[in-house]
Amino acid sequence: MKRRKFIGAAAAASAIPLTGMAGSTNFNLAQKELYEIRTYEIKFRADQQLLFDYLENALKKSLQKMGVDHLLILQEYGVSDPKRIRVFINYPDAESFMKAQSLNSDSEYVKMAADYNALTIDKALYERFESSLLLAFDGMPQMSAPIDGASLFELRTYEGYSEDAVRRKIKMFNKGEIDIFLKTGLHPVFFGEMIIGPYRPCLTYMLNFKDMEERDANWEKFISHPEWKAMSSLEEYANTVSKIRRIFLKPL
Questions:
Q1: By CB count within 10 A, which of 116, 165, 200, 221 is most buried?
Q2: How far apart, in whole angstroms, are the C-alpha atoms of residue 106 and residue 61?
Q3: How far does CA 116 lie from the centroid of its chain?
Q4: Strands, E, within 122-241: which ranges?
């Protein structure tokens, strides 16, 4: 897919080097996607199917016209109360992200979202939804489709005690850790530095597996892999993660 350059002119005009973010040196921003993660907290006894229909038939189809080729709708693995649905959207560039904020100017979208937008207060579907925005890593600049038969997704957020700690952890992924993930069957969907959202400074990534058995077996392969052991022992990457947040998800 052709990636549009979305900040080149502005950068040239201002002459500000694009190195302010934790992992943002030596890359072509026009090749790196933005990821939005939405979390919907579903109201008790709400019509969950109506929300799913809106996301799948109105939002997804409208975003596809802007170049979005992945919109994943997942729910928490196991029983949760209140129920939460997470939506993962890949935007090819900042321009498409900004256009997505004005969908109501698209007559086709308005028509497809009519039932969703006509809901009255007594039939509200969710309390609120939260959004986070991530910038893809150099080492994996575009989102990958889930593997065939994926029934388990693992969303992990690594918090760092400082921005430098997160920068070093992102460098660790870019310089070899992502490759080890691929060698050991951890099946990444995306990696992103959180640029808007909670728990900053942090990074977030998502893996997918056929089942929990594959997940456990392949994490063991990763932990015992000689390249991982060598890389994790380097002083450069010491104390890069201060807290890990992990959520298991499954297709809705």
A1: 165
A2: 12
A3: 25
A4: 126-136, 152-159, 188-196, 202-209
Give yes or no for a contact between 11 and 100, defined as CB atoms under 8 angstroms apart. Answer: no
Determine the straight-line distance between the first and last CA of the chain, rounded to whole angstroms.
28
Distance CA 143, CA 153 (A): 14
Query: What is the rounded CA–CA span in Å between residue 43 and residue 129?
Result: 11
**Exposure of 57 by Cβ count < 10 A (0-12 exposed, 13-18 middle, 19+ buried)?**
middle
C-alpha distances in Å from residue 19, one per residue of 27, 33, 94, 107, 132: 10, 17, 17, 39, 21
pLDDT in tens, 89-121: 999 999 999 999 999 999 999 999 999 999 999
> Residue 140 half-sphere exposure, CB side, CA atoms within 13 Å?
27
pTM of the model: 0.87
Identify whether 188 is preceded by a cis peptide bond (ω within 30 of 0): no
Question: Structure tokens of 181?
Answer: 């993930």
What are the φ and ψ backbone dihedral angles of 67, each rounded to 5 degrees?
A: 100, 0
